[in-house]
Structures are given as structure tokens and as C-alpha cells.
From TrEMBL:
<dbReference type="InterPro" id="IPR051600">
    <property type="entry name" value="Beta-PGM-like"/>
</dbReference>
<protein>
    <submittedName>
        <fullName>HAD family hydrolase</fullName>
    </submittedName>
</protein>
<dbReference type="GO" id="GO:0046872">
    <property type="term" value="F:metal ion binding"/>
</dbReference>
<keyword id="KW-0479">Metal-binding</keyword>
<dbReference type="InterPro" id="IPR023214">
    <property type="entry name" value="HAD_sf"/>
</dbReference>
<dbReference type="Pfam" id="PF00702">
    <property type="entry name" value="Hydrolase"/>
</dbReference>
<comment type="similarity">
    <text>Belongs to the HAD-like hydrolase superfamily. CbbY/CbbZ/Gph/YieH family.</text>
</comment>
<dbReference type="GO" id="GO:0016787">
    <property type="term" value="F:hydrolase activity"/>
</dbReference>
<keyword id="KW-0460">Magnesium</keyword>
<keyword id="KW-0119">Carbohydrate metabolism</keyword>
<dbReference type="InterPro" id="IPR006439">
    <property type="entry name" value="HAD-SF_hydro_IA"/>
</dbReference>
<dbReference type="InterPro" id="IPR023198">
    <property type="entry name" value="PGP-like_dom2"/>
</dbReference>
<keyword id="KW-0378">Hydrolase</keyword>
<dbReference type="InterPro" id="IPR036412">
    <property type="entry name" value="HAD-like_sf"/>
</dbReference>
């Protein structure tokens, strides 16, 4: 019978964290689903479709990708209005308190901060800042203030799986990609990390560990509580079958 054993890997000198699905349980998926009314059956917009076709992508790209996946005949023409409706619905859900921080995400950020690891947050969403300000750290401060680099909502470059945003975060952290650990819950994010030459940690909150491994994650966990900061900084955080 095989078992998992620790192996030596490059030491982590900085963290690059996705927002939706890693730090926050946001209402993005619900907003995309709700905005479909009149275009397609909202019930067909599953969590799997969201993860595969929308997560990590800029809004316009995600709208078109979702409509094509759902077989909407005039997807190209319908996508701009769909994206606008989604944004309006998302803002309403945020105002209604529809966003919360994952407890293990908060604990992970605090442990990393205590160890002196510089951190960046990256997201294609322009709403990420607002959500990170609403969510509080364990000491009561805004979660957003815990990060040295914030690339949320910047649209100068392409969305994931393109490595642009990872490379930009690495540059602003003044840390080479090979020493940055990217924490992602979507396959597009893992692919972006690997394309940038960065280390990749998959967070399988949705029972999707196999897909994250296939995308190239160096390790996959179900909770960030499973990661010891000391292991990151000493290079003993990945696992290998033996």
C-alpha cells in the first residue's frame, strides 16, 4: 500500500493567494447563476461549470465562456449584457452580507504574517477589494490590510490560466516565481502558477483534488490548516507517493 511522505522542495519565501474560494466564500457563483434568467436554465450553472469555465477569468471572458458552455446560440452578443447583470447582482449580494472569510484561510494568513512571509492577493474580480475590506482578520482589522501586494481587479493583462498576474505579483513581491507559493482552488489558477514557474498549492474545498493535481499542483489539501508554515520555509511542504 502506498503512503504519502515529505520530500524536500524549494523553500517558500512569499505567498500569492487567490481570493474567491481560498480566502473568501464569495457570492460570485450565485451572482452568475442568478443573472442567467432569460438566457438559460440557471440550474444548469453548476459549481463544476463555474470552476471550469468562469473562476479566475475577467468578467467579460467569464461571461462568454459560461454562455458558450451552456450552449447559448448567440453567446457573443449576449455576453456583455450578461456580465452587467451579474455585476449588479453581485453588488446586491455583497451589500446583503453574502460574503464571509473561511476560518482556515484567516488562520493561515495570520500564521504566515507572524512568520514574516510577504503575501500578495490576486484576483480577476474588481469586487475583491470591497469583499476583503468587509471581512475582518482575527484581530478585527480589515483582511485586505494584511497583504503587501494587491492585484485584485487589475485588467492590464489576460486572465488565468495565463501566468501574467502571477508574474506581476512575484515582481511586486520582489521574489522570484520559483520561491513563491501560489494558493489556488481552481484549475486555471494552478495552471497559471505552473506556467509562471511558481510553486502551486491546490485547495480542494469542493472535493476536486484530482483536477487540481492534474492541473499540476505540487500538493493538494482540503484545508489550509493542513499546511505548517515552518514546512513552507524549510522546503518540506510537498508530498510524494512511495
Amino acid at each position: 500500500m502506498s503512503e504519502r511522505v515529505s520530500v524536500k522542495t524549494p523553500k517558500v519565501r512569499a505567498l500569492i493567494l487567490d481570493v474567491d474560494g481560498v480566502l473568501l466564500a464569495s457570492p460570485h457563483e450565485q451572482a452568475w447563476r442568478d443573472a442567467l434568467t432569460g438566457l438559460a436554465d440557471p440550474g444548469r450553472f453548476t459549481t463544476q461549470l463555474y470552476q471550469d469555465q468562469v473562476a479566475g477569468k475577467p468578467r467579460a471572458e467569464g461571461a462568454l465562456s459560461a454562455l458558450r458552455a451552456l450552449g447559448v446560440a448567440d453567446a457573443q452578443d449576449q455576453a456583455p449584457a450578461y456580465a452587467v447583470r451579474k455585476q449588479a447582482r453581485l453588488e446586491a449580494l455583497i451589500q446583503a452580507g453574502g460574503v464571509r472569510a473561511f476560518p482556515d484561510g484567516l488562520r493561515f494568513v495570520e500564521r504566515a504574517a507572524a512568520a514574516g512571509l510577504p503575501m500578495a492577493v490576486v484576483s480577476a474580480s474588481r469586487n475583491a477589494d470591497a469583499m476583503l475590506r468587509v471581512c475582518k482578520r482575527l484581530d478585527g482589522g480589515a483582511l485586505l490590510d494584511r497583504f503587501a501586494v494587491n492585484l485584485n481587479g487589475r485588467d492590464e493583462g489576460p486572465g488565468k490560466p495565463d501566468p501574467w498576474i502571477i508574474l506581476r505579483a512575484s515582481d511586486e513581491l520582489k521574489t522570484p516565481p520559483q520561491a513563491c507559493l501560489v494558493v489556488e482552488d481552481a484549475t486555471a489558477g494552478i495552471q497559471a502558477a505552473r506556467a509562471a514557474g511558481a510553486l502551486a498549492l491546490g485547495l480542494a474545498r469542493l472535493n476536486d483534488a484530482a483536477g487540481l493535481r492534474t492541473a499540476g499542483a505540487h500538493r493538494v489539501v482540503a484545508s489550509l490548516d493542513d499546511i505548517a508554515i515552518d514546512d513552507l520555509t524549510t522546503g518540506h511542504w510537498t508530498e510524494s507517493a512511495s
